[in-house]
Task: structure prediction
Amino acid sequence: MHGGELIHQVTDEFGSIEVVDFQQKIRSLHFGNKTQQSAMLLHNPYILIHKYAQAMVLPLCWVKPRRVLVLGLGCASIVKYLYNYYQNLQIDAVELRSNVIEIAKEYFLMPDCDKRFQIYNESAFDGLNNTNKKPVDETDKYDLIIVDMFLTSKAGKDITIDVSVAIENIVNLLTENGVVAFNQLGQNVYSYSAFDSLLSIYLIHQLYSIDIDSTNTILLASKATIPETITDETFRYFEKNTSSPYKYYFENLHPVFE
Result:
């Protein structure tokens, strides 16, 4: 089914979780089908190899990052990337499935929790509600929130978790210039399950999208207007240090409403 060597498999109440190696070059995480939920290069585990993941961190080119929240861990590819390349960044991650957390530690080199990184084994909805029960000042908020949550149906179909009821909580956790990035399957950004909820909160000129090879669309919702231009020097700096083609994604960033 996966086309590679299955090196680990476990089942929980939500279904199967598999770890697969491909030609001793790529290790990937699967949820009961051939879709790579996330993956890493075995010889360079800290770079982002999936285009959707590269696009989701694009806002770091114009937002000065201090804190990032990751909802949905996968194999911790984005967590590792941030932890390795942004040394002064505080990273919080929330993951529902304890087996996914253990697999990320054992098979994908996820860093141990420390003063820079914390992971919470709970539903993202519970985590967001718990966070919003107490006052949050600007220093407790996040410059970037990554929403990348999927499950697989019994029929083997990938399902995007609907975060409509949590949109207000997510937005309340953003700094004044913060951005939230949503991963949507397919190219129709208007079909994203939380799209209408976003429209009820955001002005239409603050919504942007990036199409990823007809398979994913990244929806960016920004509290502030995204800059129209970024210098080539800035792109060269980030691309040299992180191996992510930020300029390409920025040039393919479009307002949802022209």
Notes: Residues 98-108 form the longest helix (11 residues).
